[in-house]
C-alpha cells in the first residue's frame, strides 16, 4: 500500500520534471519512471526527487553575491548561463566573437 502511494507521488513529480535538451537519449525522467515501478520504493526516495525538482538545496543555501560575481570575472556565471540557454536553443557565437572574446 505504501509503495503504491509513493509510486503515485513519484509519477506526479515525473510529470513536471524538465527535459534535458543536451542529452535527449538520457533523461532523468526515464530513470525516475522506472524507479516508480520498483517494489522497494521508499518515501525518502520520493522526497529526494521532489527536493531535486524544486531546487530546495539552492533555496536553502543561497549563494552570496561575492560567490556569484567574483572580482576577477564578475560576469562569468551570467555568461555561462547565457551560453547554456543559447546552446539549448541551437544558437552559438560566431567564430570571430569566440576569437576576440566578444560576448554580446
Automatic annotation (TrEMBL):
One of its GO terms (cellular component) is Cbp3p-Cbp6 complex. GO terms for biological process: mitochondrial respiratory chain complex III assembly. This is Uncharacterized protein. InterPro entries: Cbp6. It comes from the Eukaryota. GO terms for molecular function: ribosome binding.
